[in-house]
Amino acid sequence: MPVHLPEHYTQQVSSDWFWETNEQAEFTYLSPGSERLLGRPATALIGRRREAIARADETETDWQAYRQAMTRRQEFRDFLYPYAHPNGSVRWFKISGEPRFAMDGAFLGFRGVGSDVSEQMRIHERLDEALDELRQSNERLSEQNRRFDAALANMSQGLCMFDAASRLVVFNDRYREMFGLSAEALTVGMTQGEICEVLVALGTYPPDVTVDGLCEGTRLALAGPPGVAGQRELADGRVIAVSYRGMSGGGWVSTFEDITERRRNEARIAHMARHDALTNLPNRTALREHGIEMLGEGRCDDAPGLAMLCIDLDRFKAVNDTHGHATGDALLRSVAERLRASVREGDLVSRLGGDEFAVLHRAADEAGALALAQRLARVLSVPYHLNGIQLEIGASVGVAMATRASESVEELLQHADLALYHVKSAGRGAACVFQAAMNEAAKARHALERELREALAQGAFELHYQPLVDLGGGRITGMEALLRWRHPERGLVSPGTFIPLAEETGLIVPLGRWVLEQACRDAATWPAHVSLAVNVSAAQLRHRGFAEGVLAALEAAGIGPGRLELEMTETVLLEDTETNLETLHGLRRAGIRISMDDFGTGYSSLGYLRRFPFDKIKIDRSFVRDLDRAAEAGMIMRTLLGLGANLGIATLVEGIETRAQLEAVRAAGCRQVQGYLFSPPRPLTETYAMLSEPPTALAAA
Q1: Which Pfam families match (predicted)?
Q2: In 590-658, which residue ranges form alpha helices assigned H by DSSP?
């Protein structure tokens, strides 16, 4: 996607290309113009760090300022570094950038601009060489002067060289032409102050620029980092980039480059990035940026409220179809003009795309915002006369008011769009204000519920199995059944997406019954020593006849109750505790083992261990993630494992993904584990191969 830089930034920094990095300082974007200078396609550099493409002999000190800015997430300007060009040459690039943050404040990386200053660097090198040769001997003076004059004559930049006393030593014709100086007005030996007096007297600079200010600017630039370019705006509107380079023995060299056209192009690009090309209205990006500012201002106690209006043109498609896209475009421009003329100063009119517009409006309350929405609908419905054609359209408007809370521009726009959808569903040509009942989550929930019912009826669910590995015996002793939904459009859908809704709607009961029955049938095909673990929800446990259904599934599959392990989280016991405990005791008396899943994540896990004799506790994966990084994580793991051992309860650690984690839990006393290190959940047909090979082979894979 294109890099969007703030307008103030592009006005102050000249550039040849735009770039963007992520939080690891790796390139994520390089503008197309960069390829000509980099000698590589932009795609070849995506994912690489800037240091990786620099000249190999660069030291840590050379990159100190850049890395400091990266670490502190601070804006930086004009960092200079050598670039290893694919053709074997070294080019010098100067970059500037600023950090990027998400709406929630998360650091996203940096974005900025870059310029190829190789020519300036080469010029400075030539000048240094020429000056060194001038000091060596009179015999080489003639040849040195010839080379020096040739370099000056062929420079595209203006150049002035001053000695330690600030007297002009060398200048080229390009400098005189750039500042409109006659041959008589500029002579060797003039001081910098005298030259500035001539320029100020000629009106070269704006009236507020003084001789002292120009000289002081030079002094400060020479005292700062070398090679940093400043910018001077001339009275005729041109912009000149000025670079200063001190010389050994005193004095300095100034180079001047006319970057007026570049600045215009940058401003044009920045404007295009934030404005719609057809109507010249701010686009969605500008709407978001402006909305963030207005939301911030609106949180002040005495500030008026902020309303977002989403506008959709009615019958616009008929105009395009009947009169052509040229007429449709003219109509959109007329709509934009009417909208601009109908809002107050400070409001923002934006085109979102197609025939959709938006308005950010300061309003005291919903009534004021709705009044504007209704007025805009009437204004846009007045007939249009374009190229001898009378066109009649309408407008539907959705309104959303920002709250004092942390509502984002995206949420505000979404709510206004939902209100607009409500208007269009009710017949168009009106306006309404967003209400919570319009929330799209409700529609999505109903759609998902409908699809869940259809999937259950059509048998679109399937079971995958993940092995439970015994570290002492070195073999797989069980399989956990994990439900997957084979969606016709989304593919395999994880249970985290649909299980909560299934529990809320009661679909978990028939779905859970199918899982138990199918898992028991599958387990009957495994060796007798392999147990089956099935997750059970609170809604299932509360359902009358649950225990009978479990026993019936075991009997139908022909496997003993000792091979079945029911896993549940402590939420199962939070509601109807006594009833649930009675059901669990009955299942346990029948020989079925009961496990507490996600142990340690709830506030009352230890309490439930006292109330019910669980056969196993499964330590949650959240305690595993930091084992190889934090010492306290290991202490917590040893404590949990020790608790299980002291209570005589088998303990399993889930979420093992690396060998380091495996060795850590083994050292802590763990004897049974589960995780992707051994295998991800796999279909039944793939379990037989897992059961025929030792876990070490699985882990090595």
Answers
A1: EAL, GGDEF, PAS_4, PAS_7
A2: 605-611, 631-647
